[in-house]
Design brief:
Blueprint (H helix, E strand, L loop, with lengths): L3 H15 L20 H13 L18 H13 L8 H14 L2 H12 L5 E4 L15 E5 L2 E8 L10 E7 L13 E7 L5 E5 L10 E11 L3 E2 L5 H11 L4 H23 L5 H29 L7 H23 L15 H8 L10 H12 L9
Helix pairs in contact: 1-3, 3-7, 4-5, 4-6, 7-8, 7-9, 8-9, 9-10, 9-11
Length: about 400
Amino acid sequence: MSSVEEFRAEFRAWLRSHLTGEFAGLRGRGGPGREHEAFAERLAWERHMAAAGWTCVGWPKEYGGRGATLEQQVAFHEEYALADAPARVGHLGEQLLGPTLMAFGTPEQRERFLPPIVTVEELWCQGYSEPEAGSDLANVRTRAELDGDRWVVTGQKIWTSLAQESNWCFVLARTEPRTPGSARHAGLSYLLVPLDQPGVDIRPITQLTGTSEFNEVFFDGARTHTSHVVGAPGEGWKVAMATLGFERGVSTLGQQVGFRRELEAVIELAKGNGAAADPLIRDRIARAWTGLEIIRCNALRMLDGVAAGAPGPEASIGKIFWATWHRQLGELAMDVCGAAGMAAAGEPYDLTDWQRLFLFSRADTIYAGSNEIQRTIIAERVLGLPKEPRP
């Protein structure tokens, strides 16, 4: 196994030589609020990465990965971000479902589902949130009932990222009715459901940015084989919580490279239009720079949990901090723009990068666990405070 610096240099050189030609125009494309950009081209790029062995680098070699160490995985995500390479399209399969199957899946499930994730031939989305079960995930109402060797799924999921581009969805559904006095999360199962079938209706949600990264997904008698339950039926809560733990993985280090690039651009804008002469703006910029350093410290501290298998509840500290910081950066960017930031760049709703940052970052403190829920996790699971009353 090469050293971290050798690994970093190898990947940096590969990016430099391959983000050229047909892929040169993909630099900086995609990402939150911009997932619609050049999706087919980004998919082709990611399959190009797969052919060279640069997807799923942290996975064990037996599952098609490189077996990269934690430090090498950090280097991978940082170099990818530093190269301004396009936003990944297979990250939900690679970073969430894949590790979940390695931890809880059967050998047959791993053999069936892991290789197409490595080669980016199958894309995944996450079927957790519902209109009545967002942060309160134990309240899911989507149900699945056995019919011979198939589970029949009925219900609605919402805020399903990139469902319109996905082949499969990992769905948290109720397979056992709730009984009086039972735990709210009992009787849930973690199902792998194909989306290209009758009984699945995907409806994109138009967001403030004018784009549609999120979707509603309606299941009306959709079917999946009984072998497509991860973990035992009725024990889906444990599996689902593990998946959420994997979401706080090493890729957050790469995310911060993007944050730093955005902050540096805000600083240059403030210098260029004179906003930096305002002492209040200068103070907010200084606070933003300090906050970014704290985000990195939190992420590095969280890596101990990643090394142990999955981040613990302490990872909620990092989620609250970066989400709030990024939302405030969007507000700062608009204040630096001044009155000009109120006008669209063109007809009918062509947004500037700053406007898109401001609008989409409003969601940062909600998705992947709202700030309210993260504070509850910290209070109850880290500080050991009494639990909130439950209905």
